[in-house]
Amino acid sequence: MWAEILVIVIKVVVVSSVLLTLVPIMVWVERRGAAMIQDRLGPNRVGPFGLLQPIVDAVKLITKEDLTPSGVKGVDRLLYLLAPSIALVVAISVFIAVPFGFDPGLKLFGHAIDGFIVAPNLNLGILYIFAIASLGVYSVVLAGWASNNKYSLMGGIRASAQMVSYELAMTISVVGVLMVSGSFGLQDVVLHQSGTWFGFIPRWNVFPQIIGAITFIVAAFAETNRLPFDLVEAEAELVVGYHTEYSSMRFAAFFMSEYVNMVTASSLIVILFFGGWTLPGFATPAGWLGALVSIGIFAVKVAFFLWFFVWVRWTLPRFRFDQLMALGWKTMIPLAVLNFLLVGAGMALRNL
Amino acid sequence: MAFLVAHFTQIVFYVLALLAVLGGIGVVTFKNPVHSALSLLGTFLMVAGLFVLRHAEFLAAVQVLVYAGGIMVLFLFVIMLVNVKKLQPEAVFLSAQAPMAVLAGVLVGALVAFGLLAGKLAAAGGVPAALQTVDGKVLGNTEAVGWLLYRQYLVPFEVVSVVLLVAMVGAIVFGLKSASLDRGEGRAER
């Protein structure tokens, strides 16, 4: 009983602290990466290679004044204060259904750790992730509305339209993967992708389902509000949209949730389409060593996609809003449907 | 403590049900339409919790994904787009819709009462395993719902989807008509 609770507590603490520690690291990667792409130096004053810059930024954000536009009529104070909390709570609680390593039946304090996932017995798997992630839009919409500011409101309205549209494409593009692996559980999805075809092509879903992988990745960019889909913020037109009025740690909550969402999105891309913690031709060693190696492989793959997010952000320009909607409804959704029809046809032909 | 452990399900049920009903009352009593919409969102989430309590995890996930994450967001979108805050609230408590609303309420109540009296609802709710069994094998709620929808209730399922399609086409036709009327043109632009 107590060992079980202790294992769960350790999992929760480790996962949430790793997620939140990744935020300052990603901020550093983003700023230095942007500088590299734009042929500048980037932050290099604080610590070696500017590595301590995120800590200084955090101290700055904590010590800044927390302004609320409360003197203005029409600001909804309760919703204004609630919105950043929703963003962070949703971002972190999505991750409890994400498995991040191979468990060969390890025990901790005499109790099975039940896989490297916070909630192992959640038989909904990816459905839970989509359901909770779909609530994230409320933080943006409510922040935009409660600020009582025309630019913020525009950001909120854009967010509601954009996120609902791209959620459809995202959900449909996963159907093919779920059909092939026959399970909603992400651990089963990863297990299905171990091994190779013809001895050298990894059995990753990205090869047979390249259309689904592309639509999923593009939709993931739109759902995390990253460039080229950051019309919700659009500093040039909307003065950063929904969080114009926020300052101090409330602004930081939005900022952190964006990076936590990026980590979750990268993990999902790796798990669904790039074989999770498996490597072709590599047998995971037994015991704790194997578990650590599998977590390492997973982390390297996720790190690549995190860098991909940064890389794309500083390479592509922003869409116009009508282009975004046209892409979402007229290109992404038909392509995602095509992917699952092709997968279904392939499976039916094989069973003939 | 022992009481809490023994009656855990009941306690959670009553808390969720109470919050769901409070949310429903909030929808009709809040003056601000955004608050009403959020109140409805709370009700949806509490109902999802009730589904989890009855081991219908798939229904709970779909409830959150479709109603809370999709439909309510579109409600908020419309409320913000037309800026309902500026509309004057009409002090109408019992409008012309009231008799219809009472009739619908009575009919739904009668349906639930009939179900309870006939023992159908109690039987379905009393055995959670029935919601997770496919062909005698326990697989999971998602599989069980899929099995029922695509095998046993395939025709009603398809009929419902056609009805939804008709509603969607109708909405688009209305939208196109009003758009072309606004512009005074014969044909709507994109």
Q: What can you tell me about this protein's structure?
A:
The complex is a heterodimer of chains A (352) and B (190). Chain A has 352 residues and is mainly α. Helix content of chain A is 63%, strand content 2%. Chain A has helices at 2-37, 53-63, 77-94, 126-133, 137-146, 150-181, 186-192, 210-223, 235-238, 248-273, 287-313, 321-350, and strands at residues 107-108, 111-112, 196-197, 201-202. In chain A, the strands form two sheets. In chain A, strands 1-2 form a two-stranded antiparallel ribbon. In chain A, strands 3-4 form a two-stranded antiparallel ribbon. In chain A, 45% of the residues are buried. Chain B has eight helices and two strands; from the N terminus they run ααααααββαα. In chain B, strands 1-2 form a two-stranded antiparallel sheet. Chain B has 190 residues and is mostly helical. The chains are: A mainly alpha (352), B mainly alpha (190). Chains A and B meet through helix 4, helix 5 and helix 6 of A and helix 3 and helix 4 of B.
Number of E strands of chain A: 4
Reported for the largest beta sheet of chain B, the result is:
2 strands, antiparallel
Number of E-state strands of chain B: 2
Number of domains of chain A: 1
Q: Whole-Å distance between the termini of chain B?
A: 63 Å
Q: Give the % helix of chain B.
A: over 70%
Determine the strand fraction of chain A and express it as a percent band: under 5%
Radius of gyration of chain A, whole Å: 21 Å
